[in-house]
Amino acid sequence: MHTLPPTRGVRSEKTAPAHRLISEKDIVALFKTIPSTTAIGIRDRTLFLCYLYLGRRNRELRLLWQDIEPYTFTNKDGDAYEGYRYRYQAKGKPGWQYAELMREVYGQIVWYLTATDRLDSIKPGDGIFVQHFMTPDGKLVGFAKEPLSSSSIRHILKKYARAASLETTRNLCRNGPQLNRDYAYLSSVAYHRKRSWCTAPGCQTRGIVGYRVTKNAR
To answer: Is the pLDDT assigned to residue 79 strictly greater than 60?
Structure first.
């Protein structure tokens, strides 16, 4: 007589893969490798500041200028306050999703556009974080219209992570969602420790971001 195994019909529970969150020290090291006085460096600092604060997936922050707009929010006490929101397309959700864009992040985006002379000329359909066209001698001569691709952003991150000799390089660059879970965690740490961040164009960024950016840097 054949005896059925006792585990027959029992479904095994799937266990999510374990990921080690990158540390605040790693984030400091990462930002130290990003130049603070070049147009591309300012772009990349601003780009990864967005990931740090907003915690979105890679492709969710391929923003156009028209994706950001003024908005009146209401806090938990029912009081209205003015700010900015951005729209994005989330994985598995139809249509546009909206979220508040922190003033620190909006200020840094405006500063990036100001430092690269794009603030007055950028069009609604232009990407915010775009490719910079350079001459062989390093002179900035123009910008692409489309946002950086997800693969380009991963390549940029991998370059800086390697330069910082991060042990978590493979974890950082394996995929967008894990990167952004790490960033979401660290943004919470930074917020609760009340670090000071740039809130207006031209101010000095502190904490994890670190360096002063120079207007009209090339």
So the answer is: yes
CB count in 10 Å sphere of residue 206: 13
d(CA 207, CA 198): 10
Q: What is the pLDDT of residue 23?
A: 74
Residue 44's CB is within 10 A of a number of other CB atoms, namely 23
Q: How far apart are CA 206 and CA 106, in angstroms?
A: 16
**Given the structure tokens 């066209």, which residue do they identify?**
133
Token pair belonging to 189: 């740490």
Element (H, E) at 5: none
What pTM does this model have? 0.70
Taking each helix axis from N to C end, the angle separating 176-192 and 39-54, rounded to the nearest 10 degrees, works out to 80
| Strands 97-101 vs 130-134: parallel, antiparallel or unpaired | unpaired
